[in-house]
Recover the amino acids of this structure.
């Protein structure tokens, strides 16, 4: 998404959750995306492409309400179509946008849903992207991303709701952030890829179901906190570069993955790991220390790798990025 110059308020520049800020941070993302799409459409006014209908629809999008991930995905697809500078491609994208946005009442989800992938038509372009994931596991296997069988979905839904209840009990501020930023939990089975969030489908978190021998609820706590924390940080990336190291500079040791990663990926991972350590510490203090001991210790070890990198001389951050990094010391 094109960056709209904006000053990030000081109290947003932190890893610490704050329920008083969630709505305004999320709303700011919608404002940036709406402005960006209208700027792209305005560029077409001097061509023979009629975009008057979709322009009226975009202007009518209400930033006061949470948006369906489809809106963000369509904004991304429009930008990609514009890059082609091909009239037929751009016209086809505008027609698809208009068709998808015709049922506006569907575009303002009130509560998060938990469903399998491949149950809604809007998902397919992004699922195709997920299936292009190029990492392999220790056995050299590529990613498999498959829908959940109906007889298993209910079990996973119940375990996820149990995990969310524990998150709420341990840290109400995390729960408030989850409620604000997450509109869709999309589940898949397979291997290699465990989870994903993206500004392309902002509001959606994509999660692989755990192995049957895993602590099911513990798994969901870890990965739900992980993914909605990505969304919270990604919201700030809409306003500020945060990390100045180029994305092509893939030379930094990753806390979670085995491959070398760009600094932006390390910063994201460190941000979410700080929060994962926090939630498992608080659950441990509630009497679940034995149950979550291994998860907490692993997250701590991974966090140390991330901290070493983001505090190194090679980390080039904006002022906003430095303030977020400095806040890592303030979260329990």
């Amino acid at each position: 998404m094109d960056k709209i110059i904006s000053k990030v308020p000081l109290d947003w520049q932190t890893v610490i959750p704050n329920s008083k800020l969630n709505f305004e941070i999320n709303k700011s993302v919608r404002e940036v995306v709406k402005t960006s799409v209208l700027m792209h459409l305005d560029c077409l006014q001097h061509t023979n492409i009629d975009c008057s209908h979709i322009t009226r629809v975009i202007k009518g999008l209400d930033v006061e309400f949470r948006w369906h991930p489809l809106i963000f995905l369509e904004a991304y697809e429009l930008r990609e179509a514009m890059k082609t500078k091909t009239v037929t491609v751009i016209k086809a994208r505008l027609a698809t946008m208009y068709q998808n946005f015709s049922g506006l009442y569907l575009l303002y989800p009130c509560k998060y849903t938990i469903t399998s992938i491949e149950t809604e038509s809007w998902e397919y372009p992004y699922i195709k992207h997920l299936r292009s994931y190029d990492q392999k596991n220790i056995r050299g296997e590529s990613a498999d991303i498959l829908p959940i069988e109906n007889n298993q979905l209910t079990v996973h839904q119940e375990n996820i709701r149990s995990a969310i209840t524990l998150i709420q009990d341990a840290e109400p501020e995390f729960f408030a952030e989850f409620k604000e930023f997450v509109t869709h939990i999309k589940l898949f089975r397979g291997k290699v890829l465990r989870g994903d969030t993206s500004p392309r489908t902002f509001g959606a978190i994509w999660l692989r179901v755990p192995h049957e021998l895993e602590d099911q609820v513990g798994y969901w706590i870890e990965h739900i906190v992980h993914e909605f924390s990505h969304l919270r940080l990604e919201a700030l990336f809409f306003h500020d570069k945060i990390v100045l190291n180029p994305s092509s500079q893939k030379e930094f040791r990753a806390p979670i993955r085995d491959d070398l990663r760009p600094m932006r990926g390390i910063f994201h991972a460190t941000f979410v790991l700080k929060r994962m350590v926090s939630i498992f510490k608080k659950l441990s203090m509630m009497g679940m220390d034995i149950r979550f001991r291994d998860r907490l210790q692993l997250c701590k070890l991974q966090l140390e790798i991330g901290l070493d990198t983001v505090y190194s001389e090679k980390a080039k951050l904006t002022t906003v990025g430095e303030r977020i990094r400095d806040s890592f010391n303030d979260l329990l």
Q: What stands out?
A: The chain has two domains: 19-107, 113-129+142-330.
